[in-house]
Design a protein that fits this description.
With about 375 residues, this protein is an alpha/beta fold. The protein contains 8 helices and 16 strands. Helix 3 runs antiparallel to helix 4 and helix 3 packs across helix 6.
Length: about 375
């Protein structure tokens, strides 16, 4: 058993080995929920192990979400302002896009932020493992390090599941094709397609529509709901919709894609309007951005008593405690996450770690 006082003398390790077989708190997933919880718990004196597949903490947000998308939106803003500046009496020649250099700059932004989180892990003496973790039972994990070392088993007293989510593709549209993208592929900037369809009028689809339109793609959008950004204030959406109509080639509401097939170096989409009328349209690339699903499968929850909903979300109580008293879950693996803001997420994480510390002390740790 490790006492909180061991925290200050503990060395930082990117990979654990067979000599480290137990920890007070293990956090699976190093996104904004996972690393914030790990850092806060370490600050309170717990021995913390943080496990993630990426090289440094950051998760989807920093590697494949918020940060790369905001970096590219900045580029899109610069391109549009340069174009619109002619109205102010300032003319620029047409910009030339160096795609490789743009990708390199985007990755440098991501690298600086994730590298900074890696340094913060060291400063807090959090043991960070780059690898894949799955439950072996309610008190043990099987960990497979990335790149080096054999699989090993680690015992834990408390665990926080912060595995996040991944893009969702409806089964009717889930075909094997390099022309079919999710946000993961789109943010990698593999190419600038001549003609592109974006399925989904949520914030992910609209952000990437904006980016690729600014980079020169002919972008068409479809959304099955009667309005963009379902759930967002309609007055705000109305302003955004007007601007998007000027940016994109078309936006169709109450419209859905019912079938995809590969053809002639691209994809043919069967698109159905609200009257049930269908048409086939050819696109070089199609981006599906209709939502995300929790990463709750493949982490061995079946070896524990942790309960999961039919949609794959982990069930928790008000303290984010699962049906196993010493295993907690936070973030996008829970279905509440889309309903709260970042400030509330931070508050809930701090409440969780404070509760966890209190529980450990009551149990004599």
């Amino acid at each position: 058993m490790f006492a909180p006082s061991d925290h200050k003398d503990r060395p930082y390790r990117r990979f654990m080995n067979s000599e480290i077989q137990s920890t007070q708190l293990v956090v699976i997933g190093a996104g904004p929920g996972g690393y914030a919880a790990a850092f806060h718990a370490a600050d309170l004196g717990l021995q913390v192990t943080l496990i993630d597949l990426d090289q440094n903490p950051g998760g989807v947000c920093l590697y494949r979400g918020c940060i790369p998308s905001k970096a590219l939106l900045h580029v899109a803003k610069v391109l549009r302002e340069a174009k619109e500046s002619s109205e102010w009496g300032i003319d620029f020649s047409s910009p030339k896009i160096n795609l490789e250099k743009l990708k390199s700059w985007k990755e440098s932004v991501v690298g600086k932020l994730t590298g900074g989180l890696g340094e913060l892990s060291k400063q807090r003496k959090v043991t960070f493992i780059q690898g894949r973790a799955s439950f072996d039972d309610s008190h043990h994990l099987l960990v497979q390090p990335n790149g080096e070392g054999n699989q090993f088993r680690i015992q834990f007293e408390q665990a926080i599941i912060a595995t996040g989510s991944r893009p969702f593709i409806p089964s009717d549209l889930d075909i094997e094709s390099s022309h079919l993208w999710t946000s993961n592929q789109a943010l990698q900037l593999p190419e600038i397609p001549k003609k592109m369809l974006v399925i989904g009028g949520g914030y992910i689809g609209l952000e990437l529509s904006t980016v690729y339109s600014a980079l020169g793609s002919e972008v068409h959008g479809v959304e099955m709901a009667p309005g963009l950004l379902p759930g967002v204030d309609k007055d705000l959406v109305r302003v955004l919709s007007k601007r998007l109509e000027a940016m994109l080639s078309s936006i169709r509401l109450n419209t859905k894609v019912v079938k995809l097939k590969e053809k002639s170096g691209g994809l043919v989409a069967t698109i159905q309007n609200e009257k049930g009328e269908a048409s086939e349209e050819h696109y070089d690339k199609i981006l599906i951005a209709v939502g995300r699903k929790p990463n709750s499968s493949g982490i061995g929850l079946n070896t524990t008593s942790v309960e999961v909903s039919e949609k794959g979300f982990i069930k928790v109580d008000e303290y984010r405690c699962t049906s196993v008293p010493h295993i907690f879950a936070i973030g996008a693996a829970l279905d509440y996450i889309s309903e709260i803001g970042l400030a509330n997420v931070e508050k809930r994480i701090r409440s969780l770690t404070d509760f966890l510390i209190k529980q450990l002390k009551e149990e004599g740790f």
